[in-house]
Amino acid sequence: MINIGLFGYGTVGHGVKELLASQKNIGVFNLKKVFDRKEKAEEIGDIYASSIKEITADNNIDTVIECMGGDELPYQAITSSLKAGKNVISSNKETISKHLKEYLALAKENHASIQFEASVGGGIPLINPLWCLSQFDQIDSLQGILNGTSNSILTEMEESQLSFNQAVSLAQQKGFAEKDPSDDLNGNDLARKGAILASLAFQAEIKPDDFTRFGIENLTPMIISTLKKAGKRIKLILLVEKKEEGILNLVLPVAFDLQAPLALVKEETNGVLIDCSKNGPLFFEGKGAGKNPTASAILQDLTRVNSNIAPSFNPDINKPKLLKELPGRFYGFHPDGRMEKLVDPSETELRSFSFICQDK
Ligand SMILES: NC(=O)c1ccc[n+]([C@@H]2O[C@H](COP(=O)([O-])OP(=O)(O)OC[C@H]3O[C@@H](n4cnc5c(N)ncnc54)[C@H](OP(=O)(O)O)[C@@H]3O)[C@@H](O)[C@H]2O)c1
Question: How far is the CA of 67 from the centre of ligand 1 (A)?
């Protein structure tokens, strides 16, 4: 029997509890304690834990699942669980992207494991396949639509000819966008996810701030229709590319040909294209969020927590050279709508436009 402690009883936490209750033949997973605010105590019932410590100090709990969100409390819950030798599963991109190196080291030191499949791409099996590929193959590049909010806004702007603000309001009404969606639109959310993926792909510490970011906040229907006439569709992607001189980490709008695999990923769906030297290209697509897909990814992690093969960082490439040049062809748009085509522009040049996108 594997006894589980759950931190956070919100959307994902509810999904975890329901899926655990529906397990079929395995029958080995037992939800022993759940921590959340005291207002949820009655709903949680007998297994309610009123503090983090009630779970981390319980010697009968082998594995904890963290789905609270944010960083401060999750950091406390994850580090104290690992120090107590417990296996940890987290769906939290913020804390994983900030402290991955420390979490992996603590897990190793304490003969425990940390798994975070649900932290990027929700229900899409992505983290574990990427980690396995990185062991036996060379990842050449990774391109991902991994933010459902920005992708639904782009889909609505194109298909219903909405302005940016109208599309943001619609996404908020449909529950795809938060009250303050700025991190989804300026690329910060994608940089967190990109940092986790790039760190695994290259077994090196790459942080969200290592990503050069351009968002979609200044996109207009006129820009979308100009590009559509040229047979292009805009997507906000994270792009990680291994080059001879180092690694390029970017979040930027890209104008894809209409038939490109990523151009066909619409609304809140996520899609990732991984190019490797031996086994590529590979395309992953599916639900990047939601109670059930995310909980399903967490439960897949439960079947892996006892593996003694785990991600680690190669000390020889602890900080790879990060490239700042922005190679390729770009479209730059002036505030009055004029478009310029650019080749290998500098970052400063690109920031002088009201909107830019790479041409693929
Ligand atoms: N939702 C998704 O589809 C999805 C997909 C992939 C990954 N994730 C990640 O999974 C994590 C959880 O997401 P979620 O959507 O389930 O969030 P959520 O619905 O807000 O659930 C988080 C739960 O933790 C509680 N909590 C937060 N801080 C707390 C504190 N200091 N003390 C006690 N309880 C606290 C919250 O209580 P309050 O509500 O009272 O604050 C809430 O019940 C996040 O890291 C998110 O990025 C979510």
Answer: 6
Indicate if ligand 1 lies below 6 Å from the C-beta of 10.
yes
Centre of ligand 1 to C-alpha 246, Å, is 36
Characterise 315 by phi-psi region: left (phi > 0), alpha (psi -120 to 50), beta (else).
Answer: alpha
State the Rg of the chain over Cα.
Answer: 21
| Pair of tokens at residue 16 | 């975890």
Handedness of CA 183, 10, 174, 21 (dihedral sign): positive
Which ligand 1 atom sits nearest the alpha carbon of residue 290?
A: 3
Domain 2-115 CATH class label: alpha beta
Tokens found for residue 292: 């059930």
pLDDT digits (tens, 9 = 90+) for 135-183: 899 999 999 999 999 999 999 999 999 999 999 999 999 888 899 999 9
Q: In CATH, which superfamily holds the domain spanning 138-287+323-359?
A: Dihydrodipicolinate Reductase; domain 2 (3.30.360.10)
The answer, as to whether pTM is greater than 0.85, is: yes
Fold match between 2-115 and 138-287+323-359?
A: no
Query: Could you tell me the residue ranges of all domains in the chain?
Result: 2-115, 138-287+323-359
